[in-house]
Amino acid sequence: MKREFFTPLPMWIATFFSSTLLYATENTNVTKSKDWIVLPYVFSTDSTGFSGGIGAIKQGLLQPQTTLVASVFGGIPQKITIDSQEKEKSFYGGFLSFSNLKLPYTNRTFFSFMGIKSYFPKEIYYLDGSNNSKQKDVFNTSGNSDFFNTNFRYVLPLAEGLDNPEGLYTLHDGFAVNRKGYGNGSPFVTGRTSIGLKTFYQSNTSETWTSQQSDQTSTNTPQWNTNGLRFYLEHDNTDFDLNPSRGYHFMLQYSNDFGKGDSLQSWNFLSFKYNKYFNLDTFSFTKQNVLALSLWTGYSFSWDSNKEVFQDIDAHRPPLWEGGRLGGFNRLRAYDNNRFSDKAVFYATAEYRTILKYNPLKHNALIPVAIDWFQVVAFAEMGRVHDHYDFDLLSDMKYDIGLSLRAMVAQLPVRFDVAYGEEGANMWVMINQPFDF
Fold first, then answer.
1. Under 8 Å CB-to-CB from 117, ≥6 apart: which residues?
2. What would the pLDDT profile of 151-182 be if each residue is shown by its tens digit?
3. What domains can be seen in the chain, in order of their start residue?
4. Residue 208, Cβ neighbours under 10 Å: how many?
5. Is the dihedral of CA 159, 165, 169, 175 positive or negative?
6. C-alpha distances in Å from residue 387, one per residue of 129, 131, 305, 318, 347
């Protein structure tokens, strides 16, 4: 069984701190502290080895809904081979994020940014991630992985966006209160609707990969750089975005790298996500039962599989960490991170989520943070990537099933997922529900 704990770290931190779920909360039990929160942590992955770090969090800096986060991290040395020489290298890096700043002279325009600089001694890439590719066809390398993203979001003056564009909630015991009349309303008439513009930049380097560019000499350390813009429309019509019990949520997003600056090549990708939640009857031992469904699909119009910009890299394809990809801690969790990738993608999942009445850690003086509830989840997933967007995309699917134990820790869901598929099993420790953002 493969084990991935808080991996890959840049994506884990990005998911944790840059998600649109970050918002200021008003807890009815606890007076909100204005002090800094300092959190040490440890993790272990194949890419990083045994590692640790320390993070600092400051909520409500400058404005009630903002969150500032900074972190540094590093790992113990690992032996790797570079240019036929064995060397010792360590994982290291740093992270900075500031989210949901309401811009001056505006009422509903918000700005966020995040950046990471990191080095991985052992990284895994599936250059051929087609649906019929083999798990053993993997490329191992070491190198840097850096990115910097920004997000400009405008909340439309509709429904909840009129009175609560910041997305402030009141929580009690891990549940949003005064939300019985919310969720399942008419699209754009109820709920919160946003339009946005994101900028992205990422640079990945390889120390152990020799490739031949079509019209240039070989290079020992190619860089896969990408930068561009994302345009999106998002509509949240749920009762509580951190842990919905009813309603729906959808997002339409278009990403485009124009091939400018140091970008390896231009590419584009259009995606659509739809989530639906059904509040079910409870049992004598449960507080909440929910059926959660999600569908995600997308297509890259630019991808040209008849040409290559580098060996094994098709022309105008999205990078391995972008576009239509499956596998990892959010989609097809039994498979390695970004295990499958191609021009077109389809994914669907169902989760049965039940929050237990039993909570032995609710008022435990030895626990430094509040643990409001425990949730047990059974899930099934299916998905496929393909080189055409047609009905074949719905055939020869990859499947997995799994179980998850989740908890509301310091007003944020934390999950431990175990999933099993045809290539074995994977375990993930992660934060946030897998498709609620």
1. 93, 94, 144, 146
2. 999 999 999 999 889 888 888 999 999 888 88
3. 2-431 (2.40.160.50)
4. 18
5. positive
6. 11, 9, 8, 13, 15
Q: How far apart are CA 375 and CA 415, in angstroms?
A: 9
Spatial neighbors of 388 by CB under 8 A, at least 6 apart, are 343, 344
Contact 401, 419 (CB under 8 A): yes
So what's the pLDDT on residue 380?
A: 98
User: What are 337's two structure tokens?
Assistant: 């991170």
Amino acid at site 152: F
pLDDT tens-place string over residues 42-88: 888 888 889 999 988 887 889 988 888 899 999 999 988 777 788 89
One-letter amino acid of 46: D
> Which bin fits 25, alpha (ψ -120 to 50), beta or left (φ > 0)?
beta
230: closest CA among 197, 262, 206?
197
Token pair, residue 395, equals 């055939």
How far, in Å, CA of 141 to CA of 302, rounded?
A: 27
Strand, coil or helix: 319: coil
Return the residue matching tokens 């919905």: 244
